[in-house]
Design a protein that fits this description.
about 130 residues, 1 helix, about 50% strand, about 5% helix, globular
Length: about 130
């Protein structure tokens, strides 16, 4: 099983980035896909998640209205995207894609409930 993130980089405050995650190696039917991030010296935190069907998503309060998560299940490789607008310096972190079978949204925010993780992609927002 592989989750491979891409799309990170350096951007000025107020700018946008689109992260992508390619998930392959098994069926992800029924899996919630999520993005977490970890800033230097801080714990990994939940950013956004989307259920299998793609018609329900959840965001941390810090990114609501600025970030949008989406997924494409059409092919053998499931694609998950995180569109990040109005970026702030505090959004600087390594962003990780994760997959897990989540029974309720309160569990979706806990990283221990995810079975598969990508290697991460760095996002740096300059002021």
């Amino acid at each position: 099983v592989q989750l491979v993130e891409s799309g990170g980089g350096l951007v000025q405050a107020g700018g946008s980035l689109r992260l992508s995650c390619a998930a392959s190696g098994r069926t992800f039917v029924g899996y919630t896909m999520a993005w977490f991030r970890q800033a230097a010296g801080k714990e990994r935190e939940f950013v956004a998640g989307v259920i299998w069907s793609g018609d329900r998503s959840y965001y941390d309060d810090s990114v609501k209205g600025r970030f949008t998560i989406s997924r494409d299940n059409a092919k053998n490789t499931v694609m998950v995207y995180l569109q990040m607008n109005s970026l702030k310096p505090e959004d600087t972190a390594v962003y990780y894609c994760a997959a897990g079978v989540i029974s309720r949204w309160s569990a979706a925010m806990s990283q221990e409930n995810y079975d598969y993780w990508g290697q991460g992609t760095q996002v740096t927002v300059s002021s």
